[in-house]
Amino acid sequence: MNKTVNQKAWFLILPVLLLVAFSAVIPLMTVVNYSVQDTFGKNQFFWAGLDWFKEMLASERMWNALGRQITFSAIILAIEIPLGIFVALNMPKKGFWASLCLVLMSLPLLIPWNVVGTIWQIFGRVDIGLLGYTLAALGIDYNYTQDFYAAWITVIVMDVWHWTSLVALLAYAGLQSIPDAYYQAAKIDQASRWKVFRFIELPKIMGVLMIAILLRFMDSFMIYTEPFVVTGGGPGNSTTFLSIDLVKMALGQFDLGPAAAFSIMYYLVILLVSYVFYTVMTNLDKRDGH
Amino acid sequence: MAKITLENLAHSYLPNPTSEDDFALKELNHDWVDGEAYALLGASGCGKSTLLNIISGLLHPSQGRILFNDRDVTMAPTTERNIAQVFQFPVVYDTMTVRDNLAFPLRNRGADPAYIKERVQQIAAMIGMEDTLNHKARGLTADAKQKISLGRGMVREDVNALLFDEPLTVIDPHMKWELRTQLKSLHHEFGHTMIYVTHDQTEALTFADKVVVMFDGRVVQMGTPQQLFEQPEHTFVGYFIGSPGMNVLTAQVDGDKAVLEGTQISLGKGFGSVSGKVELGVRPEFTSLSAGDAGLPVTIKRVEDVGRHKIVRADFHGTEINILAAEGADISPDMNRVVFDPAGINVYSDSWRVAPKVA
After folding, report:
1. Residue contact A188–B78, C-beta within 8 A
2. Kind of pairing, strands B252-254 and B257-260?
3. Which residue of A94, A182, A187, A189 is the best one to mutate when testing the B interface, meaning the one whose CB has the most B CBs within 10 A?
4. Per-residue DSSP letter, B36
5. How far apart are alpha carbons B39 and B269 in whole angstroms?
6. Nearest CA among B330, B350, B354 for reference residue B270
């Protein structure tokens, strides 16, 4: 059979091309453009080659921010993933309480980032915040504006509060899809609760768990608003994560070239890690024989 | 191994059952004799799986008691009952190897490793999976997975009973026959009480010593394949077992005579006067065509040749009658009468069989 050749069909993909061009390609290329040029104002630009990249790679400031960023993502993943699974395992399976739990679990996810930041900023204040005041009254030295550990703990607890629900909901969806027969067979086989989790539940929710890990990794790696509202990156630079540092550099100091080089490397790191995750996930699926 | 007794057992999935229709399993008394192989046969939704899950303890009955060797286990959890059960769809532990899957029930009960090794090897040989013992269970085909499930069910020798819930649904026909034969030989070897749920009559009749036929939440007949065939206690049993099923015709019965749509036939034995909705049940095997004047006048609709015999589909005043004719039998246009062999005539009142009166 002869295929009909109709070159006019190209026009049909034009809207998509335009959309992608304006939403992704052009902004990204602008950043690339900045990253290889220098300017002394008056909209005059000079070719700088890879100088900004070299400077950024040698910059202690960027490496420190990256170190803090990785530590932060690792800590919140280590807390949110197991906690989310634990919550999902203990949620009711059906009926009124299941619906209620689902609504309650979704609530934190619906609150805008800067509102979450504000809530915790006030909550933790030693003078008027319920948490800060109570801790102070108990004689615990807690002040997130001055103490390194207090600041980190606040930012981490805030993220756990905001996002554990997401992991729990995904894990819950995964658990709900396990047929009853598996649990019945486990009972017949006299499997312990731990073995049921290890050999039935965990393998069956591995797929959604990977998605949860990927989402939480990407999101936490790009976190900006919440810690910025609560600590402003302080005390000192102790909670200055990559995005916060980037904004300081680009908009605070108006170092467009270095900031652009920085963003591109930042983007490549996220892309790389996501790609690795994606590969691992698809391989898991293949082993499943899907 | 144990004798299993069901006493006044009934189950409803509703919290407050009021009428009999609310019960998925209607009140039932039954003994499962130790060491026998039973098939639980019935259409989908007739309560077979409910009954099975009550025996294994996955479900607690709304009323009545279950006894294992006269010990009340009605509320005992599954683990205390020491039962093996194989489900309709394969349940395997994906991340484990086939070997670990088979060893799982034994390990959980703390069996001796040397014994586990030997037993797993034995079971693997039985299900024909010795070569794949070290493979991960994930990625195997559905019937390989189901063989693992079967193997896991059979791996323990000391179980009180082995329950099968339509276990061969996903297995291909050739393997079905082989596995069924193996189950049977396993039964002969170890003498476990086995209960095998199925909606496939061939499966039930070839597997079991006794077949229990269920209909609408009720056990309608329990018997050997021969009893079910020759004397169905309920018209449902007649329909359900046999291919094609029993012919059921409305009639008036008086003594040893029956009148069907104005035609009188002889029953060969006396039934007295039968009340209620009276029907005659005659299997196609006991039915033949005749060119004479005796018998019921019928119109032949079509003849189906299934190879080893012919099935004649005839119409008698709007009711279909199936007649089994020998492969070589000549069916001529003047054969417009159907005669019944009196030995094969059963009389039913309100769907239940009426025993003939001994003269």
Report:
1. yes
2. antiparallel
3. A189
4. -
5. 32
6. B354
Among A187, A199, A204, whose Cβ lies nearest the Cβ of B78? A187
CA-CA-CA-CA torsion sign (B161, B165, B170, B175): positive
Q: Residue B37 to residues A185, B33, B74, B82: CA-CA distances in angstroms?
A: 21, 9, 22, 18
**At residue A105, what is the residue type?**
M
Q: Is 0.80 topped by the overall pTM?
A: no
CB contact under 8 A, B152 and A289: no
Q: SS3 for B51?
A: helix
Segment holding B340, helix H or strand E: strand B337-340
DSSP per-residue codes, chain A: -PPPP-GGGGGGGHHHHHHHIIIIIHHHHHHHHHHTEEE-STT-EEE-TTHHHHHHHT-HHHHHHHHHHHHHHHHHHHHHHHHHHHHHHHS-SSSHHHHHHHHHHHHHHHS-HHHHHHHHHHHT-TTT-HHHHHHHHTT----TTT-HHHHHHHHHHHHHHHHHHHHHHHHHHHHHTS-HHHHHHHHHTT--HHHHIIIIIHHHHHHHHHHHHHHHHHHHHT--HHHHHHTTT-STTTT--HHHHHHIIIIIS--HHHHHHHHHHHHHHHHHHHHHHHHHHHHHHHHHT-
Distance CA A179, CA A190 (A): 18
H or E segment at B23? Answer: strand B23-32
Neighbours of A192 (CB within 10 A): 10
Choose among A185, A204, A287: nearest Cβ to B87. A185
Beta bridge partners of B288: B339
Whether the Cβ atoms of residue B31 and residue B4 lie closer than 8 Å to each other: yes
pLDDT < 70 positions in chain B: 1, 358-359
Helix (H) or strand (E) holding B126: helix B113-127
Taking a C-beta distance cutoff of 8 angstroms, is the pair B276, B286 a contact? no
pLDDT for B64-99, tens place per residue? 888 888 888 888 888 888 888 888 888 899 888 899
Q: Tell me if A80 sits within 8 A of A164, measured CB to CB.
A: yes
pLDDT digits (tens, 9 = 90+) for A171-204: 999 999 998 889 988 988 888 899 999 999 998 8
Residue B231, phi then psi, degrees to nearest 5:
-130, 70
Q: Tell me if chain A has a CB within 8 Å of the CB of B277.
A: no
In the predicted model, is pLDDT for residue A288 greater than 70?
A: no
Identify any residues that bridge with B248 across adjacent strands, giving them in sequence order: B281
- A107 contact partners, CB below 8 Å, separation of at least 6: A165
DSSP, residue by residue, B55-95: HHTSS--SEEEEEETTEE-TT--HHHH-EEEE-SS----TT
Q: Which two tokens stand for residue B43?
A: 């259409």
The percent helix, strand, coil of chain B (3-state, each to 5) is 30, 35, 35
Residue A211, exposed/middle/buried by CB under 10 A (0-12, 13-18, 19+)? middle
3-state secondary structure of B107: helix
Q: Which two tokens stand for residue B225?
A: 């394949």
**Tokens read off for A29:** 């290329």
| Of the candidates B36, B32, B33, B34, the residue with the CA atom closest to the CA atom of residue B1 | B34
3-state secondary structure of B257: strand
Q: Say which DSSP state B169 is in.
A: T
Local structure of B293: helix, strand or coil:
coil
